[in-house]
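Treating backbone geometry as a discrete language has practical consequences that deserve illustration. The sequence in question and its structure tokens are set out directly beneath this paragraph.
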Amino acid sequence: MRAIIILCLLEFAFANYSWNGPSEGEDDASPEEPCLIDHEASCGCCMMQQKIHRMQLFFNKSLEALEKELDKTQNTLVNMRASRSAFSVALTNSDELTCVGPYREDHLIVYKHVFLNLGNGYDVNNGVFVAPRAGVHSLALTVYSDAGSPGNSLAACASLQVNDKMVAEPREKNAQDQEDSASIAVALHLKAGDKVAVNLPIGCFLCDDKSHRNTFTVFLLYATD
């Protein structure tokens, strides 16, 4: 039995290949063997060739399907990397307490100390974050001030804005103590190109140092495009 199998394999090999390769003018691919197209062939060698041919077709189709799945996975990873967007900044990183405001008119706050700017959506020159793609984002803002003495009418306050429209305004007016702070956190659906910034309204001022009491953070929860 073993000898028959070996002879069949040798016959199949010689039928598809020659020791010197394909003859001049012939294609590399071997022509269809009669055993492979004659479904009524029943000799042992023909049956083995048919089974080997079916296995080749099966493995080729399986390989093609795996390659397609690999391409899909790679595209998914590329999209995930492209959609990463997150930044977190603080007002300053100064050793001494530094205050901004109050101003006679509304004034955009430029946060100078950058903890993270994944995707480079936040512009440290103007304090504006531009959403790189549509999706649900988490936005958080904390404000802090040191009035210097109780009774001062100034307040720790700021306005979180999207496309120049106020979304939320954390505020604490100085009345009973010297230090004031407030925080807010919201989830919003932003479109690609939407601009997020923090505005300092009239009568508000903020103070910070390397303790980083004034922070502004935005990150993409999941993309929707």
DSSP finds three helices and 15 strands in the chain. The CA atoms of residues 126 and 223 lie 25 Å apart. The first strand starts at residue 86 and ends at 90.
